[in-house]
Amino acid sequence: MSSFLHQRPIQNPFSNSYPVSPRSSSTSQRPISIFSPTGLIILLSLMVILGVFVPWSGMPVATFSNSKKASSSLAKWRDYTLAEAASFVAKNGTLIVCAVSQPYFPFLNNWLISITRQKHQEKVLVIAEDYATLYKVNEKWPGHAVLVPPAIDSQTAHKFGSQGFFNFTSRRPQHLLKILELGYNVMYNDVDMVWLRDPFPYLEGNHDVYFTDDMAAWIVVVKRMERMERRLNLVLNLIVAPLPQTLGCYILEILLPLLLYRKVASCYFSLVDQVKALNHSHDLPPPGKKGRTYICSCMIFLRPKDGAKLVMKKWIEELQAQPWSKAKKANDQPAFNWALNKTAGLVDLYLLPQAAFPTGGLYFKNQTWVQQTKGMHVIIHNNYIIGFEKKIKRFQDYGLWLVDDHALDSPLGRL
């Protein structure tokens, strides 16, 4: 720009060599100084023109370019297959898998922090059940999330007992079967779990399917107590109905607590029976009153063997035979137990130690047992409680909610 302002005036070959007015000639040939008022005005004008028009002329191009890149990135993850994801994530032929929709992000991060502390986070593959989860996880942690179509309605999938929740959980055996058919070992976890220690040393031997018992002794007792109280109230009300009101009330106040006390005593022994010995059997437990076991479908380890594939196929069949309805608000766990019970003689099954993998109904309800087994706990499951806020509060009360103070330890960072 300065060279333009200081260039010599072009000489016209046809001009008069002897101008009539020397004064006018010298004025026309004088170069414009950049520091002169005229030069400063020209410079300022150029800066205004460049500052105003150049950004506007370039903005559509930049916006289009960024939009094109974002669109290309989203298309890449939409087309990302389970086979590609498993190949990218698996370490030593093993994957750690969870299935998550957007409302579960806080629990996903909490779970990931606990796994990172055990140095197994690189094996984690998040099966996204909606596109928001797919894009967010891969934005923060490229390649560690995959969506197996179709996507579900994430707003209903987290409501326990809803059809959305059933649709969400019933896809689990399909995902696991596909991973087994690809030839990988796979550990499945619900994300309302926290790892306190490395679980892999507990996967002894070369069994087909490893699982945990979900029978919560305390919950069994509470449910029995509630049923007993209802029945006793009904019976006693029938007995005292013909009696005078004062006498009837007196009998209810005295007899009901006494009868319940006897039942509490019997339930206490039932409670003791439900807590397994530290050296308990690793066989499939005997069926309960409903004719099936009460194994948890939320913590499973599978080897890519025919037995594990058979259980997954049977699980899928049982889910199809027991669809969700308003009358019978099914979930995936009873179907998993029927699958285990019906294939037990054909599959090599292994029950993991209760002290290492306690259900929430035991860990959060029986502090005597927790103290007796201190230092043995490996994965804690925050189940037997419904509602995100209640689960978070319980984790916080027990020092297991890691997101608030350790979010940066997660591969996803602070969400």
Automatic annotation (TrEMBL):
GO CC list: Golgi membrane
Chief place where the protein resides: Golgi
UniProt keywords, alphabetically: Cell wall biogenesis/degradation, Glycosyltransferase, Golgi apparatus, Membrane, Signal-anchor, Transferase, Transmembrane, Transmembrane helix
Sequence intervals crossing the membrane: 34-56, 234-261
Record's bilayer topology term: Single-pass type II membrane protein
Compartments where located: Golgi apparatus membrane
GO biological process: rhamnogalacturonan II biosynthetic process
EC number assigned by the record: 2.4.2.-
Any GO molecular function: UDP-xylosyltransferase activity
Keyword check for Transmembrane: yes
Keyword Transmembrane: yes
Stretches assigned to the Nucleotide-diphospho-sugar transferase domain: 120-215, 269-395
Pfam families: Nucleotid_trans (PF03407)
Top EC class of this enzyme: transferase
Family, similarity comment: Belongs to the glycosyltransferase 77 family.
Name assigned to this protein: Glycosyltransferase
Record organism: Gossypium davidsonii
